[in-house]
Design goal:
- The chain is globular.
- It is an alpha+beta fold.
- Strands 5, 6, 13, 14, 15, 16, 17 and 18 form an eight-stranded mixed β-sheet that branches.
- A hairpin with a 2-residue loop joins strand 15 (249-256) and strand 16.
- It has helices at 24-35, 60-69, 71-79, 127-134, 144-158, 203-208, 297-310, 316-323, 368-384, 395-430, 445-470, 481-507, 534-543, and strands at residues 16-20, 39-43, 55-58, 81-83, 88-93, 121-124, 140-143, 163-164, 169-175, 178-183, 188-191, 193-196, 223-224, 227-240, 249-256, 259-265, 270-277, 331-336, 347-348, 351-353.
- Helix content is 36%, strand content 19%.
């Protein structure tokens, strides 16, 4: 055999990484790093993983990132996916929608002059058109338990013992050789890098930014761990229901005076809804299983009655969904929101924050989980870019990589965070029932402003917004693959939905199961797919993730 005239490089020492938190961000970061040869261990607070939780939204930018991370991961996610953006998604007039869920034209220039022109739809979101511009897969949802199983399985294929349950990380100590990770039980572990992916009430963040005890409330009760109350609370529920537009509409936002109401198809015949209200913090009317206090049937019934009273005069479409909701499924959550971290680095020595730990987002754009996935990819890329195959990464190089990750991400994440926050404030405080020359349902200044905003939103603001979101697509364009994936999905979607509708006709609607985030000590009972936590599902399906 001919001899090589150069020396083949040998691999250097594996970078040892500890990740605090086994949510979407933590598990995706683990998979990214394991695929690059890092020695990764995830420490998760819960005693064991269980199949809890509802759908989480992945927009086109997140799907592109998943494909860039791993082809098999992407294919497995697509096999469990429900597309929403291939159908109409948009804003409906909460007072003028006629009650039949009809798919009327969004833009008709004769509307001001012809009172027979329907006014059901206000604007539509150009999700499909913007995805097609970049040749990306279409926005949709995946059940959180399915995503969890896929990520766990892919990570275990690379390192069978990569995750340690019932081991919450509570702190850290940087030193010249890396970082000492501290656990709740008094134990510790040494690592080159600690990734804080432990959510909005992050212990790693609390120490890094000196915020005091985790989840400590302010004296006035309006902030938790330095995170202010957004001013909004959300009620959510779930039902299996064949709406008149089920196969033609992905999700819709009903707008009206001082509030809005959202419904979304999340697959298997399920409709998730949430009602977004401006109320003081602690205005509790239902439980929140994420906080370990799921709602009762009586609370759910009271909330549905309360929401119906608030929406008097609104379209019967809202009431049809509320009346079809099992009362046990109704939950409530106060929303807390941080301003983007512009000036404080997301890194402290060998420690770095990702996902909700550093940039939680309001649910309106559905980018919370998406940005955590982008973080995972960009963090791994930043680290790998700074040393060669044979090098043993020095702490100085690692620290530079972590700070470089923050600098590369801060502007995009800040922009998306501000857009998410602005969407809530505009809809609640600046939008109202649009003015119409044909009735008196919208007559104040907000109504006139909303009417005038329609063409600007339809043809400028929303196209620009979604082009910005999807402009990050590390996979590159995918040609006709998105259309082939959507065509395969349509057949599956109709079959599973019709089976769910038939079950409802035969056995009635079933109530929600416990949240994915509730602590579990043993295996939960098997549940049909329509028995998912509605609050997490509704928020994530149209906006949110971890």
């Amino acid at each position: 055999e001919p001899k090589l005239d150069f020396e083949v490089p040998q691999p250097g020492r594996k970078l040892k990484v500890v990740i605090a938190g086994g949510g979407v961000g933590g598990l995706t970061t683990a998979l990214c790093m394991l695929k690059k040869g890092f020695d990764v261990t995830v420490y998760e607070r819960t005693g064991k993983f269980a199949r809890f939780g509802g759908p989480i939204q992945f927009a086109s930018n997140a799907l592109s990132t998943l494909k860039a991370i791993d082809e098999r991961l992407f294919q497995r996610v697509m096999g469990k996916f429900t597309f929403t953006a291939t159908r109409r998604c948009g804003i409906k007039d909460g007072l003028r929608a006629d009650g039949s869920f009809r798919m009327t034209d969004v833009v008709d220039p004769t509307y001001p002059f012809d009172k027979s022109v329907p006014a059901d739809w206000f604007v539509s979101f150009p999700l499909k058109e913007c995805a097609d511009f970049f040749q990306l897969p279409y926005t949709g949802v995946i059940n959180r338990p399915d995503l969890q199983d896929i990520l766990l399985d892919e990570c275990r294929a690379l390192k069978p013992d990569f995750i340690q349950n019932a081991a919450p990380v509570v702190g850290y100590e940087n030193h010249e050789g890396g970082v000492t990770v501290k656990f709740e039980d008094g134990g510790s572990a040494e690592a080159d890098i600690l990734v804080g992916a432990d959510g909005i009430w992050s212990a790693i963040r609390s120490q890094m930014y000196k915020e005091g005890p985790v989840k400590a409330k302010s004296a006035d009760g309006r902030s938790i761990q330095g995170c202010p109350y957004s001013g909004y609370t959300v009620f959510a529920g779930e039902t299996v229901m064949k709406l008149g537009d089920y196969y033609e509409c992905g999700y819709k936002v009903y707008i009206g005076p001082g509030r809005y109401f959202v419904t979304s198809d999340v697959g298997d015949g399920r409709i998730q809804w949430y009602a977004f209200l401006a109320l003081p913090p602690g205005t509790k009317k239902a439980g929140d299983s994420w906080e370990g206090a799921g709602g009762s049937a009586q609370e759910g019934a009271d909330v549905i009655s309360y929401l119906k009273s608030l929406h008097q005069g609104w379209s019967s479409e809202v009431f049809q969904v509320l009346d079809a909701t099992p009362v046990e499924s109704v939950e409530q959550r106060d929303l807390y929101d941080r301003w983007p971290e512009f000036f404080r680095s997301w890194a402290d020595g060998s420690v770095v924050l990702v996902g909700d730990a550093v940039h939680p987002m309001m649910p309106n754009l559905g980018q919370g989980g998406c940005q955590a996935i982008e973080d995972a990819y960009e963090l791994t890329k930043s680290i790998c870019a700074r040393y060669t195959f044979s090098e043993a990464p020095a702490p100085k190089v690692v620290n530079e990589a972590l700070d470089g990750f923050y600098k590369s991400r801060v502007l995009r994440v800040a922009g998306i965070s501000l857009l998410s926050r602005l969407a809530s404030d505009l809809i609640i405080n600046a939008f109202d029932t649009p003015w119409s020359p044909h009735d008196s349902k919208g007559m104040d200044w907000k109504s006139y402003l909303t009417f005038l905003w329609k063409p600007v939103l339809q043809f400028i603001v929303f196209p620009a917004q979604f082009l910005f979101l999807y402009s990050y697509h590390p996979s590159g364009g995918m040609g006709d693959l998105p259309k082939r994936l959507e065509a395969e999905w349509r057949e599956r979607h109709r079959k599973s939905a019709e089976e769910a509708f038939e079950r409802v006709e035969r056995f009635g609607r079933q109530s929600s199961g416990p949240s994915f985030f509730a602590k579990v000590e043993g295996e939960p009972p098997a549940m049909p797919s329509e028995s998912m936590n509605p609050l997490e599902a509704a928020m994530a399906a149209v906006g949110g993730g971890k």
